[in-house]
Amino acid sequence: MALSPEEIARCAQIVDEAADTAELIPMLTIERPEMTLEEAYAIQRASMVRRFERGERLLGMKMGLTSEAKMKQVGVHEPIYGHLTDEMKIEDGGVLSRARCCHPRSEPELCFILARDLKGPVTPEEAMEAVSGVCPALEIIDSRYKNFKFTLEDVVADNASSRGFVLGPVTPIDGVDISALPMKLVVNGQTVQEGSSAAIYGHPAKSLAAQANMLARLGQHLEAGQVVMSGGATAAVAVNVGDEVQVVVEGLGTASFRVEA
């Protein structure tokens, strides 16, 4: 049985309040095993409306599950996505409050800056024509579910587990080959993960196009000035109070944040 509009709204309230207060919640699918991926996205969108009504501004989108191996593992044929707001942005070198998180983890990414609107359907090459710059980035992911257990639908409903993001210096996209940039995640001066931008959906441009194309199915599009986090280049690593976390992308530079209580 499909979820009613009232149940969608109730679920949106649950995940929104959990993210706002860093309170752990049981999986939504425990009581709603019939939840579909489309319904999970409806919950996500409804939760974002609550944020916008509180005054948060949409800055862009984030892609998740961009590893081909992970997609096969969970049985999907395309990545998932979530929303990014101004409240989620941490300045380069800034602070993540551990008290506002449940299970914080971080992963190294590339982030696109859009110079113009991007409307799907588009190819990766067409999508890149809307990009003005790219930067090294860190995402902080933070599932709000108890015991760090969830289904794919739970993750999507929970805004794809996003908590925050950090952007480094922007490099003009012209002349930059982003297909296979070496990337490192460094915690407290030690490299804990190494990867390549090629791990991001085979090519980060494919991730950007997928985001535009998934939004197009809803009659939506990316707007000039927005940012798109392309997805993790390595596995995410748990972060704790006192940690200094940095991404290093060859040819693009670094971005960092520290964790405080």
Describe, in plain words, how this protein is organized in 3D.
The structure is a single chain. Strands 1, 2, 3, 5, 6, 7, 8, 11 and 12 form a 9-stranded mixed β-sheet that branches. Strands 4-14-13-9-10 form a 5-stranded mixed β-sheet, with no helix packed on it. It is built from 7 helices and 14 strands. The mean pLDDT is 96. A hairpin with a 2-residue loop joins strand 9 and strand 10. 26% of the residues lie in helices and 31% in strands. With 261 residues, it is α+β, with helices and mostly antiparallel strands. The protein is globular, with a radius of gyration of 17 Å. The protein has one domain (58-260): Alpha-Beta Complex (Fumarylacetoacetate hydrolase, domain 2).
User: Domains counted in the coordinates: how many?
Assistant: 1
| Count of β-strands | 14
Question: Main β-sheet: number of strands, strand sense, barrel status?
Answer: 9 strands, mixed
The CATH H-level superfamily is Fumarylacetoacetase-like, C-terminal domain
**Which overall shape is indicated by the principal axes computed on the Cα atoms?**
globular
Describe the structure concisely.
The chain has 261 residues and is of the alpha+beta class. It has seven helices and 14 strands. It has one domain (58-260): Fumarylacetoacetate hydrolase, domain 2, CATH 3.90.850.10.
Question: Which key phrases capture this entry?
Answer:
alpha+beta, Fumarylacetoacetate hydrolase, domain 2, 14 strands, 7 helices, 5-stranded mixed sheet
Blueprint of the fold:
Layout: H1 5-21, H2 28-31, H3 37-53, E1 58-64, H4 68-74, E2 80-85, E3 89-90, E4 94-97, E5 105-114, H5 124-128, E6 131-141, H6 152-157, E7 162-167, E8 171-172, E9 182-187, E10 190-196, H7 204-216, E11 227-229, E12 237-238, E13 244-249, E14 253-260
